[in-house]
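Recall that a protein's primary structure is simply its ordered list of amino acids. Everything else, from secondary elements to tertiary packing, is in principle encoded there. The following example makes that idea concrete.
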Amino acid sequence: MSKELVGKSVEELAPLIEKREVSSLELTQAVLDHAETLNHTVNAYISFTRQQAEETAEKVDQEIAAGKYRGMYHGIPMGIKDNLYFKNEVTTMASKIHRNFVSDYDATIIAKMREAGIVFPGKLNMHEYAWGITNNNPHFGACRNPWNLERIPGGSSGGSGAAIAADMSVATLGTDTAGSIRIPSSACGIVGLKPTHGRVSKYGCFPLAWSLDHIGPMTKSVRDAAGLLEIIAGYDPNDPTSVNAPVSQYTAALTGDVSNLVIGVNEEYFFKNVDAGVEKLVRAAIQSLVDQGARVEEVSIPSLKYAEYAEMITILSEAAAIHHRDLLKRPDDFGSDIRLLFELGEIPSAVDYLQAQQLRRQIKQDFQKIFEKVNVLLAPTLPLIVPNIGDNEAVINGEKVDLIDHIIRFTGPGNLSGLPALTVPCGLHDGMPVGLQIFGPALQEGTVLNVGYAIEKTNPLKGKKPGLVGSV
């Protein structure tokens, strides 16, 4: 029964908990037992908080028994990426320098999730300070991809992606500065949503690059992502980038109807130098939407040719500014990979940084223009299949390429523009998941989610799960 429970999505579990056919405590213990058993293999968790989780679950069960059911996520256990602050608990940022850091307040989204009745069984592994895409962590060990334990899960939210794929958490969150929600979600075969910049408060999240950072859901289904976004979205005066706009009923947007949808496809950037197996699955997913009544229109976004430069100058500069003092005083306490990145971040001039911001403005304007003609833009999430742990190169159509440059090629524009972007599985290539990415206009997460839902209904993974957890 416990193995069956941990494999379910939130949308499947919620009615069972509401009707008290399954208790939150029973589910929490099943998830913890499963996660603790697998963690020596997958290394998705940095730490577990079993006692606190069980105590919270018992209180949840009492509330539900008293008729005080709070909604879809009430009683759901969720491991959380270890750069989100919990009051009076250690938040490590998966680093040596902050290994014993204790916040005196909850992150805004943690407070919102507590209010929704969510249970927290532990903290999830991540790339140190969220500055990387492999989750090969020198302080807490490499996290492994449940689909192939030799391969990276993607990063920086690698523990989040691996935990969902391996049923070690029912749902979770990721943070995303250049793709760190969407990269591991695509690599691990799950749903990942980067909302509009400012849609979800970042107060109480340790920053990587403040003008690019986002927080969003990573889940087993599109409906789970929509339900979680309803909880965490909203204006927060503590976050200066927060957008003061009403929160939609995102779950209500999931009709699956795409009969009048106009899909934008940009060939010159988003389909350039893509692995043939990945491209085939992405185009098949787009065709599945056409078969449901959508139509495709090719669009041009000329400024995307500057996207990689603008992304790297911005993230390098802002990250280096945040860590400047520690880089001067204790450089050897950083992992060697991110220390190099922080050192590189000291090089760009103010002119370089400001020019990058001008390029960002142009990219944003070009996206706005295409969304006057199309409802969404569809593209591969990644142009490649993730490589083995320790590799700095990946392979695209038989050619070795630099991993970090290519893995963020298609995700970075979403951070530069601040537009919502969703990745959903669209199939398996050589036994590894492939993700399709859906961009939409600002604050139109409902539209983006509904397109993902229409793809999800075609069952692109054919019910397959990582061999680690078996098939359904």
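The chain has 16 helices and 15 strands. The longest strand covers residues 421-429.
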